[in-house]
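User: Um, what's this?
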Amino acid sequence: MKLKNFLLIIVISIFSSLIWNLYTNIKINELSTNLSIVNQDIIELEILKDQTFNLYQEKYSIENIEKISDSLNFKKLDIYIVNKDLSSPYKIDSELVEIEILGTLGK
């Protein structure tokens, strides 16, 4: 009786393992399908983004703005006042730190 029960348990465990593996394989295939759909959507969005950027570059590039201004009879104004004594609004942290000198050289 014990051998029969032991063999029955082994057969049931093998069968349940087989069923569990098939079930997980089906779930993995479903996830893979969903992932491929998401990847296709990402590729389509990247293509759309690149097309939009190219249209933006064409519409608002400097050459196009100059063409539009020429067609509307606008002219570019030159700037003659140049201030050469400009300083940067930010300073490096190392410029703000005072250097401490240890000892004296004259004594």
In short: Residues 1 and 7 are 10 Å apart (CA to CA). The mean pLDDT is 82.
